[in-house]
Amino acid sequence: DAARLSASATVRLEVLPAEVYYAKVPSLPVSPLSVPAVLENQTDWLTVANVDARINGGAADAGVAYRLSTSGDKFNVSANTGILTARPRTLDRETASEESAVAIAVNAAEPKYSASVLISLPLTDINDNPPRFQFPGGDCLVLENATVGSVAAAVVAADPDASAGAPNYNLVSDSSAGKFRLQSGSENSVQVLVNAPLDYDTMASVSYHYVLI
Q1: Which residues of the chain, if any, have pLDDT below 50?
Q2: Which of 108, 117, 159, 178, CA to CA, is 20 to 30 A from 137?
Q3: Are residues 86 and 155 in the same domain?
Q4: Where is the Cadherin domain (predicted)?
Q5: pTM for the model
Q6: Are residues 96 and 143 in the same domain?
Q7: CA–CA separation, 9 vs 11, rounded Å?
């Protein structure tokens, strides 16, 4: 790479005569196999793809057994039909925007030969997570007699869901009787502005609660 760091891998290649290759080795779709995007966090088993291997142009799935290259909790492949399914509630776009699995088809006769295909599954986001405040995490100090219109605090939040858009801020409770107001900031932030003169002697303890809608 650009930093001149390297890695190595050993790939074993076995050359077969044509009559053996076509008669024994399963033929699979071109890898990677792209499939349409699906909504994340499906509540039921979801059919992702049909691997559909053939040997020597024969019927699909005839003389072939299927398995996945690695075991996991997200995908399952039917050993007999090559249908790849995703388990319920395992596809989370906030964790990964795309999931993948490697399906392997093995011929039933001896000697055993196999072929594999990578299936890539894009995930479409749904708005299933609440926004999260990033700042502030505690009290903000404001000087009494601060200029009306000056910024008392800046609040930043973000929504992990790509489809949610920018958060909307609303002042839910205000024990200062309107001495502060909200003004939209930039990049998912909102500013708390001084809206009226502040007198420490009459409002030493003021609490606020902000929520996102």
Answers
A1: 209-213
A2: 178
A3: no
A4: 46-133
A5: 0.68
A6: no
A7: 6
pLDDT at site 116: 92
Q: For position 209, what pLDDT does the model report?
A: 46
Q: Which amino acid is residue 171, in one-letter code?
A: L
Of the candidates 69, 101, 124, which is a domain's last residue?
124
C-alpha closest to that of 119 among 24, 22, 13, 38: 38
pLDDT tens-place string over residues 42-55: 889 999 999 999 99
Residues 6+ apart with CB under 8 A from 169: 155, 157, 182, 184, 190, 210, 212
Domain range holding 111? 18-124
Q: Are 180 and 155 in contact (CB under 8 A)?
A: no
The per-residue pLDDT for range 80-120, each reduced to its tens digit, is 999 999 988 888 988 889 999 999 999 988 888 899 999 99
Cα–Cα distance list, 116 to 32, 63, 94 (Å): 10, 16, 28
> In the chain, which residue ranges form alpha helices assigned H by DSSP?
18-24
Strands 151-158 and 189-194: antiparallel
Please enumerate in sequence order all residues whose Cβ is within 8 A of that of 96, keeping only pairs 6 or more positions apart, or say none.
123
Q: What is the pLDDT of residue 18?
A: 82
Q: From the CB of residue 148, how many other CB atoms can be counted at a distance below 10 Å? A: 12
Which residues, listed in sequence order, are joined to residue 182 by a DSSP beta bridge? Answer: 192
The phi, psi pair for 210, rounded to 5°, reads -115, 140
What length does the chain have? 213
Do 113 and 194 reside in the same domain of the chain?
no
Give the pLDDT score at 102: 93
Residues 160, 200, single domain; the answer is: yes
Q: What is the pLDDT of residue 138?
A: 64
